[in-house]
Amino acid sequence: FNGVSFVSKASMTYGRALHTATLLIDRRVLIVGGISPSTSTAKSTVLASYEIYNWDTDSFVTSTASKTLNVARAKHTSTRLSSGDVVIVGTYSTPSNVSEIWRTNTD
Fold it and tell me: What's the predicted TM-score (pTM) here?
């Protein structure tokens, strides 16, 4: 562990748990779904949004209302395909048998 340290980076727009993070071919990181932390006034919410971390600018870009997942997801999997696209499968919320593909040329 010599020389290993943690360095603070940009903050995501939304706090997330039970999400996935997938390294894209261009070194950005796709962060998908998850649940938002509960507050004293609300329960946790399963998220249909995604964020993309850009290493070069140390910043996050959040999906817009018109560009979200088809199904809110948490406890799912995200796998980068050889094409660079990412297949997203499963969720613990209904319907859990729905899959979708995030296309690299869309963001």
Answer: 0.85
Tokens linked to 14:
């939304």
End-to-end CA distance of the chain: 36
Whether 74 contacts 81, CB under 8 Å: no
Kindly report, residue by residue over 24-41, the tens digit of the pLDDT: 999 999 999 999 876 666
Do residues 44 and 36 lie in contact, with contact meaning Cβ atoms separated by under 8 Å?
Answer: yes
Q: Is 20 exposed, middle or buried (0-12, 13-18, 19+ CB in 10 A)?
A: buried
Place of tokens 């297949």: 87
| Model confidence pLDDT, tens digit, residues 49-66 | 999 999 899 999 888 877
Beta strand segments in the chain, E: 20-23, 29-32, 50-54, 59-62, 77-80, 86-89, 99-102
Instruction: Copy the structure tokens of residue 8.
Output: 């603070």
